[in-house]
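Notes taken during the Thursday session

The instructor put the following on the board and asked us to keep it in front of us for the whole hour. The protein is Putative monovalent cation/H+ antiporter subunit A. We were told not to look anything up and to reason only from what is written here. First, the residues (791 in total):
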Amino acid sequence: MADATALTFAALCLPFLGAVVAPFLVRMLGARAAWLLALLPLLAFAHFLGQLPAVAVGPITGGYDWAPSLGLRFSWLLDGLSVTFALLITGIGALIVIYAGGYLEGHADQGRFFSFIFLFMGAMLGLVVSDNFLMLFVFWELTSIASFLLIGFDHRRAAARRAALQALVVTGGGGLALLAGLLLVSSATGAAELSQLLQSGDILRDNPYYLPVLLLVLGGAFTKSAQFPFHVWLPNAMEAPTPVSAYLHSATMVKAGVYLLMRLNPAMGGTVAWEVLLPLFGGVTLVVGALLAVAQTDLKLQLAYTTVASLGLLVMMVGFGTSHAIEAAVVYLVAHSLFKGALFMVAGIIDHETGTRDVTRLGGLRHALPATFAAALVAAISMGGLPPAFGFLAKEQIYDALATASPWAVVATSMAVLGNALMFAIAFAVGLKPFWGKTKGTPKQPHEAPISLLAGPAALAALGVLAALFAGHVHQWVSSPMASAVSGSTVEVGISLAPHIGLPLLLSLLTIALGAAFYWQLDRLRAGMALCLRWLGTGPDRGFDHAITGLIRLSAAVTRILQPGRLEIYITCTFLCVAAILLLPLWIYGELPVMPAFPSHLQLHEAGVLLLALAGILAVVVARDRLTAIVSLGIQGFSVAILFLLFGAPDLAFTQLMVETLAVVILAMVMTRLRLSPRDRRSFGQMLLDGSIAIACGCGFALLLMKATERPLDMALSDFFNTYSKAIAHGANVVNVIIVDFRGTDTLGEIAVVAMTGLAILALIRVRAHTERKLAENDPNAPEDLGVERP
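Then, after some discussion, the predicted structure tokens were revealed:
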């Protein structure tokens, strides 16, 4: 067991190791480093592949204590769901690394790119195997950061920077919602790990906070998996290099939200809210994404919008609530990863070899790119849902799950048929149209891609067919354990290539017929969608720009109010807050202290100290210039020092005297260096306001101190110091021992703060003196008191 835990930890660390060593290997080996770097995800793939027999029996948990006193663990949960995602992330990730080596060969920043892609891989791998809530959230946000770096890789282009910022804002905002949701889940159930939550039964569903938790979790999942209206960041992420697009859309970040919904289905699914919100948003996203894909001419954008549609289909199936729907979602997720990764890499090959991705400028490439054409056609067949590809099984399973008599199922089935038919048309628009027909002129003379570019799409396309041909074994080791983990109970997936006569087959034939018609009339559909988009005007993408612009304007307005550049306003606001913090809790919660009785017999020296303090207050108030007020203010500190001395604390009295003396000296020096009017020229109203705030703060501190002294004095700490100061620190002066030994680091920090403050004051004084001298040298009319000799 210990060996398995260590191996899993090592597998999780391998991508991060790749992120560290990639720049050095690229510098030494160039593009050939990709083949060596691909070994790292392949090793992780081999480890998780070896876990399939174990997770088919039951989930595996493991990890290391991080902060045991806080109940924090670096822990993971391996079951059919997490291991399947881990296999997709590492397996497709290895192919993407090889593909990127050929695609970016000769690029000056290839090493940096590999670091980012491995960071992305490690973050996504950590996310899908995380058991601890905090670990899940850390990796969740790390995927957003890594995607920001990858999408904005070509940071010299404004479009890439905007797309990266948009992805970070949308997914980062969703991440904050997810954090709030996870905190509520932990508070409501007492669980700190997913394995605990999944075993808690209906505790979360029966909790009164279920709906807020659900909405927060959906906020995180919908933004990550680009559900309408948060879908806009995903097509714009096509500004990233094609290897990023292929990885992002097939196996990584866009499926993180779907993974989260699948993971939480046993604990949160089965409610009315779950079975309404997920199919509703998923169905709308499916149709909107498919329609927007039709309007595109860029191969990558066509595939990007179909990814939006596919994610909507997955969310709809997860929310539908039946075991057949879960089976369909599982099979479709695996099929989508295979054919979408292959088609994106094909689009990159076409762009790399011809210099364009515009489908209207492409044709007849089957002669120049025969191997690429074969991989593209097989992947398109799977995406279109035709046999003998794994996508055909997925589509049949979807229709089998939706084919019920309820009105909601009819609506969902209609959306699924329309969305799948449109995606059928786009599949062959990408996988067939550029290769068929007459050869067209392209910016570059096309020729077949090298093996580094072909390996990825060829392998994924072949796997899409092999998975269908050997569906029984795939279901045994992948689909059934994954569906069981999502359902929370044992599920056996049995769909195969054998024909299933009935309504699902009829719906499948209808989808193919509609898809063929859409493909035939694709140019007209594109023109019609363009007219619709122009008629609709501003969409969510422009809405994002308006929202960011509005946020910037709001921030500027708030800054002008809260940060106007006037020190007196800052000080006033600060002391208002201090007064409110001190007084309001005492008043609201009825904790005002009992006012002490004035002593009936006051000794002469005590009365003298009291009169001295009152005289100091009066002197400050009536002082006619600032310097006199500062000196008079010192009287208060000296009075307190005398009180310390009278009550037997000579060390405190000495400290107070020193502090007060230094404070008066420093304030006096600073005031003499500032250009201030000798007198306070505030209006009566301003003085009344400032005086009221000062009195409120003083009363707040006094009342809080009085309330604290009402409680019985606990001598436990004093007894501890008296007992151990001599024994441990070998010091007879308890106060000195506390300051130097027990609070040594704290005292060092205080000394450092005081020293830095003094240096800052000295720097400000010198800067002002230097500025005044320069102004005087350039201004012959400068006043004589600046101390500048006249030329």
